[in-house]
Amino acid sequence: MEFPDDLHYSSEHEWLRLDGSTARVGITDYAQDALGDVVFVDLPDVGLEVVAGASCCEVESTKAVSEIYAPLTGTVTAVNSALEETPEQVNSDPYGEGWIFELELLEPSDVRSLLDPAAYRALTD
Questions:
Q1: Which of 25, 42, 50, 70 is 20 to 30 A away from residue 108, measured at CA?
Q2: Burial level of 73, CB count in 10 A (0-12/13-18/19+)?
Q3: Which backbone phi and psi does 35 adopt, to 5 degrees?
Q4: Residue 31 is inside which H or E element, if any?
Q5: Which domain holds residue 41?
């Protein structure tokens, strides 16, 4: 399993890449592996205000439908519309082309509440 050092992780298996007050969000390598082949991503609406820990979209695989939770509070500013045509990018490149949405964070310092790579690795062992 791959857990890049430049990311922050939630205990619900989402990752977050912080860039100022904007964050790109996706699901981890561990999560996509557990889900199996992703066949559909129900993207959140741009402009949706999300609360940390609340469900904001879904990923459907050949095994199950799984909720995706907002790792932090903010407003959805972009979605990866390429996933509508190629949802399998969540499996093949979870930390790159398989990102799901971007947030404008209400409070960027809240990122300290997320797990670092070592803590996330320990969670998944």
A1: 42
A2: middle
A3: -70, -35
A4: helix 29-35
A5: 19-101
Instruction: Identify the band that residue 46 occupies on the pLDDT scale cut at 50, 70 and 90.
Output: very high
In a domain, 111, yes or no: no
At 1, the pLDDT band (50, 70, 90 cuts) reads confident
| 85 part of a folded domain | yes
| Alpha carbon distance 13, 27 (integer Å) | 6
For 83-116, write each residue's pLDDT tens digit: 999 999 999 999 999 999 999 999 999 999 999 9
pTM for the model: 0.95
**Number of domains into which the chain is organized:** 1
Pairing of strands 101-105, 74-79: antiparallel
Kindly report the backbone phi and psi dihedral angles of residue 29, in degrees, each rounded to the nearest multiple of 5, phi listed first. Answer: -55, -40
Question: Which CATH number do you get for residue 48?
Answer: 2.40.50.100
8 part of a folded domain:
no
Residue 41 in domain: yes
